[in-house]
Specification:
The chain is of the alpha/beta class. It has helices at 18-30, 51-63, 67-75, 118-127, 159-172, 185-196, 221-236, 239-246, 248-257, 259-273, 280-293, 301-307, 335-338, 357-360, 362-376, and strands at 10-11, 79-84, 87-94, 102-107, 136-141, 178-182, 200-205, 317-325, 342-349. The protein has a single domain (10-33, 44-379), classed as Alpha/Beta hydrolase fold, catalytic domain (Rossmann fold). The chain starts with 9 loop residues before the first strand and ends with a helix.
């Protein structure tokens, strides 16, 4: 008997009202650029986005970029909503008709969104063009509080709650066990799911933070390059996280007021954190999703626990962990260090790639996930 999603998974079509688009256009058109300065002239981004990039991107966003075209691409994938514990959770899914299909949940981070995984889903559909041959259920949620998944705002909402909602999604879909994959904030959600929920039987990560430092004498040249790149970023590019964690209401209010401000804040991260700069339309679609859904402030919640007054405890992961190393990840995972934080079952090292692995290297990340699944699924 083939799989069909439960009635609680409501098919969803994204359709931003024309009025919202008109308001965005008017606000962006009237938004003033800061004056040209020495600080804003450095093409290496040492002081943030350049005046030139912001000016040209504003013009492109206003006069060339097509939200409706991007919206149609999003709607070319099966989108759903499901109400779970006060969260109106959005997710994209490729369901298999195979009885033994492996459920895999892919979790994005900040400042990304579910669309990071769409290039990979395109590749999966080409690899397995028929649901009858697809050996996986591919589930890509929008994290609670992120674009298209509004969460409660009248009380504190924790990462543990977010992980519980994401786990419940898989349970509600009828999966007794599944694998979670994540990077950035998604990696923390995946780790919490592995720690706290029996249904999550293994995780694959492309970011895995641990307190221990690597033994530099054991590193190869690529790993040394990665460590040095991460060190420079921590010194010059990580202040945003403290702002998110300690003053989320302030920075969230600023960024919710003006699309040009949001473009500068998020655009900088895609430019700096990627090995190869993503397509500009992708960057703008991602920013547009945050803008139209008014979700930038609520997306900062995890930082309050990771960098602010609260805390979240991450224990050793005894369940099998797969890892993909990309040299320009902000927190590059060195195998002998990661083994202190989890039961490393597979570890793949790549010569290029940055923080947005699913977007930058979808073929490589997917190949790593498939290898991990084949290695562990029959054992868990």
């Amino acid at each position: 008997m083939s799989y069909s999603p439960p009635s609680s998974a409501k098919p969803f079509t994204l359709n931003i009202p024309d009025q919202d688009i008109d308001e965005w256009r008017q606000l962006l058109k009237l938004s003033k650029l800061a004056p040209e300065t020495w600080e804003g002239s450095h093409e290496d981004g040492r002081y943030g986005v350049t005046h030139k990039w912001l000016r040209e991107t504003k013009d492109y966003w206003l006069n060339t970029y097509s939200w409706r075209s991007e919206e149609a691409r999003i709607n070319s994938f099966p989108n759903y909503r499901m109400a779970i514990n006060g969260v109106d959770l959005h997710f994209v899914a490729l369901f298999s008709e195979k009885q033994d299909a492996v459920p895999i949940q892919f979790l994005h981070g900040w400042p990304g969104s579910f669309i990071e995984f769409l290039p990979m889903l395109d590749n999966i559909r080409k690899q397995y063009p028929d649901a009858k041959t697809l050996p996986y259920h591919i589930i890509v949620p929008s994290l609670p509080g992120y674009p298209l998944s509004p969460r409660p705002t009248d009380r504190e909402f924790t990462m543990e709650e977010s992980s519980a909602v994401l786990n419940q999604l898989m349970v509600n879909l009828g999966f007794s066990k599944y694998i979670a994959q994540g990077g950035d904030v998604g990696s923390f959600n995946a780790r919490l799911s592995a720690m706290n929920h029996d249904e999550c039987v293994g995780i694959h990560l492309n970011m895995f933070t641990v307190r221990e430092q690597p033994d530099m004498s054991r590193l190869n040249a690529l790993e040394k390059t990665a460590i040095e790149s991460a060190r420079k970023w921590k010194e010059t590019g990580s202040a945003y996280a403290q702002e998110h964690g300690t003053r989320p209401s302030t920075i969230g209010s600023v960024l919710s007021s003006n699309p040009l401000a949001l473009l500068a804040w998020i655009g900088e991260k895609f430019l700096e954190w990627s090995d190869t700069t993503p397509d500009l339309d992708h960057i703008l679609t991602n920013i547009s999703l945050y803008w139209y859904t008014l979700s930038i402030l609520t997306s900062f919640q995890p930082y309050r626990q990771l960098h602010g007054e609260s805390s979240v405890h991450f224990a050793y992961i005894s369940k099998p962990v797969g890892f993909s190393f990309f040299p320009y990840e902000l927190f590059p995972g060195i195998k002998h260090v990661l083994e202190k934080g989890g039961n490393i079952a597979t570890y793949e090292q790549h010569e290029s790639g940055g923080h947005f692995a699913a977007l930058e290297k979808p073929e490589w990340l997917w190949a790593d996930v498939e290898k991990y699944v084949k290695e562990v699924w029959g054992k868990v």
